[in-house]
Amino acid sequence: MRISEVIDRIKHYCKGSWMGQPIDEEKTRDKILFGNTDRECTGIVTTIYASVDVIRKAHELGANLIIAHEALLWNRGDRRGWLEETQNKTYLAKKKLMEDYGITVWRFHDYIHSGIPYKGGYIDGIFYGLAQETGWDHAQICEDISGAVYVECEETTPREVGKLIKEKWNLNGLKCIGNMDAKVKKILVCGHIAEGMDIKPIISRIDREDINLLLPLELIDFTLTEYIKDSGQLGMNRAILAAGHFNLEEPGMKYILKWIDDALKEHIDTTYVQAGDMYTYM
Predict the structure, then answer these.
(1) Residues 106 and 185 in one domain
(2) Range(s) of the domain holding residue 240
(3) Around Cβ 191, how many Cβ atoms within 10 Å?
(4) pLDDT tens digits, residue range 126-169?
(5) Cβ–Cβ under 8 Å, residues 163 and 187
(6) Model pTM greater than 0.90?
(7) Domain holding 229: CATH number?
(8) Could you tell me if 254 and 241 lie in one domain?
């Protein structure tokens, strides 16, 4: 099967509309980021990000297609004109590596978030995969990224959840904020906590629904973090475990291995390669 057909079949398998809007092929982030699609696919690697080590591993495995969730060249839209103009050394070395190995990189972002088949409908493939890989079989998956995964669980603590995540996701560690001895019964994987965003809805939801533990995609050191720190110091059951954006979404790219044969309607050797924990803790 040609690489172009692999991509088309995966797109067709997905819902194709996200946040209530059909995916626009002109505007979608799901582009060929590097390489040629008009050739036979010798194997597939799935990953969160096509890092240099992932590219090397794909070549070692005999795979010529990397399906990555995030950008390849460190900027929104993967624009490379500025890198060519400045003859950026890292860019030139990475480009040569992909050329020498004959690697094609396709970004699979909007389509997997739009949904994979689930009980006669569709469900966000990244966050459903995250829940399944973590063992949260009864998690609620929401199309609204602000509350992507909601888990009600037997009483536990942030320490125990952190240990589970660290082991399941193969991480070096997590950042912890708030009351580490909190009684945790409700966990929320939420969206980006970034500078300039309206923080009122998420703080109000935490308070209203008595959510005990948050796992955010992004996290800055003010607004929500300050709120959780103060709540914890008041003895409330509030904490944050921050793994980082790439680390948090990568289990969803591993979960592709569970359904890719159904999408392709035939078998192509597919391997999940972890890009590696973004952080080293000192």
Answers:
(1) no
(2) 126-245
(3) 15
(4) 999 999 999 999 999 986 655 689 999 999 999 999 999 999 99
(5) no
(6) yes
(7) 3.40.1390.30
(8) no
